[in-house]
Amino acid sequence: QGQLVESGGGLVQAGGSLRLSCVGSGRTFSNYAMGWFRQAPGKEREFLAAISWSGTSSRYADSMKARLTISRDNAVNTGYLQMNSLKVEDTAVYYCAAERDYLKAPKTWDGFWGRGTQVTVSS
Fold first, then answer.
1. Mean pLDDT throughout 80-88?
2. Alpha-carbon distance 95 to 84, whole Å?
3. Whether the Cβ atoms of residue 23 and residue 77 lie closer than 8 Å to each other
4. What is the number of other CB atoms lying within 10 angstroms of the CB of residue 98?
5. Rounded CA gap, 67 and 86, in Å?
């Protein structure tokens, strides 16, 4: 079975940046799309971005696309999410996921999921 592990979260001041990483193990994730989601306390899980297995296609939530960049390095089975101009309301647990079908609706992704990394943005 495959496993995804996120890292790179932490405490950052508003206006700052973070780069999250998601390392896959147990199988080769280079033939999976990868995505990033987040969930704040009391809120539903929210789609942020996804990238195709080759890295040539990506898509973003409209509300976030100006501040996010998703990328991947299949040589090291790792995906990344660069987040800029962070706001207090970005505070949440951030999850990465892997799905066979890049075009699958984010709410239906049911492949592999990491356990999340906490991002806290202070004012």
1. 98
2. 17
3. yes
4. 23
5. 8
Give SS3 for 29: helix
pLDDT of 1 reads 83
Q: Which residues of 41-76 are buried (b: 16+ CB within 10 A; e: fewer)?
A: eeeeebbbbbbebebeebbbbeebeebbebebebee
Residue type at position 16? G
Handedness of CA 41, 45, 49, 54 (dihedral sign): positive
Q: Name the DSSP letter for residue 64.
A: T
Token pair for residue 103?
């075009």
Q: Is the pLDDT of residue 88 over 90?
A: yes
Q: Tokens at residue 71, please?
A: 């990328």
Q: In whole angstroms, what separates CA 89 from the centre of its chain?
A: 17
Q: What is the pLDDT of residues 37-63, one digit of tens each?
A: 999 999 999 999 999 999 999 999 999
Tokens of 91: 């505070």
